[in-house]
Amino acid sequence: MKTDTCDANAPIDQLKAISSWVSSVQDLDKLLQLIIESATGVVRAEAASLLLLDPTTNTLYFKVTTGAKGDEVKEFRIKIGQGIAGHVAETGQPLLIADAQQDNRWMREISDSIEYATRSMACVPLKINGTTIGVVQVINKKDNTQFTHADMAVLEEFSSLAALAIGSARSLEQVRQENQDLKKELGEKHQIIGKSVILNKVLEDAQKLSRTKTTALIQGESGTGKELLARLIHRESPRKEKPLVVLNCAALPEPLLESELFGHEKGAFTGAAGRKLGKFETAHEGTLFLDEIGEMAQGIQAKLLRVLQEGVFYRVGGNTPITVDVRVLSATNKNLKKEVEEGKFREDLFYRLNVVQLNIPPLRERLEDVASLVDHFLAVFKKETGLSGLTISEAAMDKMSRYNWPGNIRELRNAIERAVVMGNGKTIMPEDLPITASLPKFAGLKVGLTLDEALNEFKKEFILLNLRHTGGNRSKAAKVMDIQRTYLSRLITRYDIRDLA
């Protein structure tokens, strides 16, 4: 870049070139360096610098410098109100100094330290939304003349560009930080609580699954946390930076569900005022979680199967093929295998969705996790209500630890919320809980069984309960039941126990 001579349009051309990069700044340091170097050349200065305010120390530090002594200058800091730069930062008003040696505001210590003869100066404030955040200054004309008001006007334009660049960079950083905070908050909100063996086995399988793009079917009763598990799989996957899109298939009738999944073109049906992108397009390169997949009508099932097989679909009312890369997770509280046998769910779609199956245990099968869940939800509601000193009584905890929780974790959360709101604000008591204490009920008991038959049914269910609790580990289950492992194996054979899901 030639800096000794420039035509009348040079400042405008350089300002236009730089301003086109400012709003999408990627490297602030390089951009500020370019702005100050350009300002130095346009006004034909020997040296220039951009100083920023450090609010913690109320001083200015040299962010960008040009000239032979630029690196040496960066060792210094200037107090607000001190020197020409400090005065401009304090007042927010520009200064044009014809002879620095004769100006009592000039701070000669820096010039003397670096052995630089300062003659004339021009200094302008650097402002964002009317607040001074620093200054831009130029020193000594190369031709030994003085800076003019025209030079000052040019310098103010470059200062405005620098302020815009800094503001854009700070906004981008704020957005990045907010995104990080939001991800952290969502991670905490959607974490899966519990340390039971049976839950840890599910989480271990989910971690393995997250590293692949394999479709998976999550099965479990309502309120067990199927969506939370889907979020964990996405969060731990290579697709985590892309969207996770959630759609409840039970919430929409067939025509609307088709539009939600695949989108529609303008005029595709009454009310289609414009083009709409479907969930598959929105989830491109990410994950699509289809909750309550068992409620999907068979007409939509066929179209979903085609997308899973080919990765291509058409918007409703459209004839342009759309290709997507989407990892599909689905969930249901129904027995899909039984639905297939009854002709209510397509067999080919079932096998396509059920490449890997994860089964979330009901809360009654992992009652040892109740205490951890109670602590988690209590902390959430204490924060929301401001009842920081709220505790839970031992009797209330015991009552919850012996309850069957037919509504699973959702019911537990609601019970804690109700107790927090309706209790005395100090200690949650058993009577604050909208539940009736009960040990898990044995489903096999019924009228008509002989005593031996009832005992055998109980033994079978008891063995199944403990095997599920230990993730199928016979040695651990035998230890819990206080029997020999070999005896447990004989019982498993006797009662034909096979399915631990």
Describe the secondary-structure layout.
Elements: H1 10-22, H2 28-42, E1 45-54, E2 59-66, H3 70-73, E3 77-79, H4 83-91, E4 95-97, H5 108-114, E5 121-128, E6 131-141, H6 149-189, H7 197-210, E7 216-219, H8 226-235, E8 244-248, H9 254-262, H10 279-282, E9 287-291, H11 298-310, E10 312-313, E11 322-323, E12 327-332, H12 336-341, H13 347-353, E13 356-359, H14 370-385, E14 391-392, H15 394-401, H16 408-422, E15 427-428, H17 451-469, H18 474-481, H19 485-494
Parallel strand pairs: 7-12, 7-13, 8-9, 9-12, 14-15
Antiparallel strand pairs: 1-2, 1-6, 2-3, 4-5, 5-6, 10-11
Helix pairs in contact: 1-2, 1-6, 2-6, 7-8, 14-16, 17-18, 18-19
Q: Could you explain the architecture of this structure?
A:
- This protein has 501 residues and is α/β, with parallel strands linked by helices.
- It has four domains: 10-173, Beta-Lactamase (2-Layer Sandwich), CATH 3.30.450; 197-359, P-loop containing nucleotide triphosphate hydrolases (Rossmann fold, 3-Layer(aba) Sandwich), CATH 3.40.50.300; 363-432, Helicase, Ruva Protein, domain 3 (Orthogonal Bundle); 451-494, Orthogonal Bundle (Arc Repressor Mutant, subunit A), CATH 1.10.10.
- The chain is 46% helix and 15% strand.
- It has 19 helices and 15 strands.
- The chain has helices at 10-22, 28-42, 70-73, 83-91, 108-114, 149-189, 197-210, 226-235, 254-262, 279-282, 298-310, 336-341, 347-353, 370-385, 394-401, 408-422, 451-469, 474-481, 485-494, and strands at 45-54, 59-66, 77-79, 95-97, 121-128, 131-141, 216-219, 244-248, 287-291, 312-313, 322-323, 327-332, 356-359, 391-392, 427-428.
- The strands form four sheets. A six-stranded antiparallel sheet has the order 3-2-1-6-5-4, sandwiched between helices.
- Strand 10 and strand 11 (322-323) form a beta hairpin.
- Helix 7 crosses helix 8 and helix 17 crosses helix 18.
- The protein is elongated and about 115 Å long.
- The termini are far apart.
- Mean pLDDT is 87; it is low at 1-8.
